[in-house]
Amino acid sequence: MDEKFQNLPLRSGVGIVILNKENKIFVAKRIDNPKNFWQMPQGGVNKDEDFLSAAYRELEEETSIKEVELIKEIDEILTYELPKHLLGIIWKGKYKGQKQKWFIMRYLGTDDKININTKKPEFLEWKWIDLEMITEVVVDFKLEVYKKLKSQIKEIIN
């Protein structure tokens, strides 16, 4: 890592695993990275906001999803660092990566209620995928996070 970036902090964030009735996982393709990479909803935590409140807010902001039930809060804080070419660009250069609190939730609504064309859209398209696929479609610098999540999700759906 470039020396000028190594002392940057990690951004505090949340991530949400959304399972549908068939235990498929919600993923979406980012507008700012339209290659064939998909991710689960995630985002930053506002000042004076707890992790769970941030998760519900981010989920609604990114997907319009409100009808969920919390299944599990992942105990471990998962982290990733940005690759060199994104350092100093993403998050206005304030952070070198993210430390995230993840939640697994069940979607109780219908697909027609999911809307990624929100006030500040982040996604081009979305889909439900099998658990095994989440580590195949994620951008490489988030792969370790998704591997850890995969094992946690397996425990719940098996």
Describe the structure.
The protein has helices at 3-6, 51-63, 134-137, 143-157; strands at 10-19, 25-30, 42-44, 68-73, 78-81, 97-107, 123-129. It has a single domain (3-157), classed as Nucleoside Triphosphate Pyrophosphohydrolase (Alpha-Beta Complex), CATH 3.90.79.10. It contains four helices and seven strands. The model has no long low-confidence stretch (mean pLDDT 93). Strands 1, 3, 4, 5 and 6 form a five-stranded mixed β-sheet that branches. Strands 2-7 form a two-stranded antiparallel sheet. The longest helix is centred in the last third of the chain and has 15 residues, at 143-157. By secondary structure, the protein is an alpha+beta fold. Helix content is 23%, strand content 30%.
Topology:
Layout: H1 3-6, E1 10-19, E2 25-30, E3 42-44, H2 51-63, E4 68-73, E5 78-81, E6 97-107, E7 123-129, H3 134-137, H4 143-157
Number of domains: 1
Q: The biggest beta sheet, please?
A: 5 strands, mixed
CATH superfamily label = Nucleoside Triphosphate Pyrophosphohydrolase
CATH class: Alpha Beta
> CATH fold name, please?
Nucleoside Triphosphate Pyrophosphohydrolase
**Nearest-angstrom radius of gyration?**
15 Å
Distance between the termini: 39 Å
Order of helices and strands: HEEEHEEEEHH
| Oligomer kind | single chain
Determine the strand fraction and express it as a percent band: 25-35%
CATH architecture: Alpha-Beta Complex
Computed structural class = alpha+beta
Query: What is the averaged pLDDT score?
Result: 93
Strand segment count: 7
The low-confidence runs, each spanning 5 or more residues with pLDDT under 50, are none
Number of separate helices: 4
Summarize the amount of helix as a percent range: 10-25%
